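[09:14] KT: can someone run the structure on this one? pasting the chain below
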Amino acid sequence: MKSFLKDLGPTFSKFISTPSVSRFTFLLAVSSILLITACGASRKASKEVSAPVKVEDPYANFFVDFIHTDKLTVALEKAKAEDKLVFIDFYTSWCLPCKLMDEDVFTDEAFGDYMNEHFISVKINAEQGNGPNLAALYEVKSYPTLLFLDLNGRVKSRKEGAAYQTELRRMGNEARVAGL
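[09:31] RB: done, structure tokens below
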């Protein structure tokens, strides 16, 4: 170590050798070691104490059975297999009317029975996954945008903005009359 200090030059070796710098260097090294070990210990302790986080189903309180997909083909294939139309709710995480529909409309049991009998329902987040592509395809400009589609993906009924059960039921009936 002394030969290393000599190689650095006489001024630096005198600086390092002074008692105040040596104490400071020693205290800095010790405090760094303590800090590193304390952080490591708290990280280990927090891993042991914390329980696994459960991700709740966002549709758990809904009576409308939304399928979990952002792929239009999945919904259309399921609709063809069950001889139903497709209902799409385009939403965003920040959309207040979308949240109000989640709380007031999709949680209605009688409305859920009607929708489940006649439609394959899909909620599409227009800002995630394949949502932006589908929103562009159907020219979604505001949220929520509610669509009833035939088995080929053509729009039979459209509403931009929130709608309650009566209006959605009317739209669904119009789409059903327009045909599969």
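[09:33] KT: thanks! Residues 150 and 180 are 5 Å apart (CA to CA).
[09:34] RB: yep, looked fine to me
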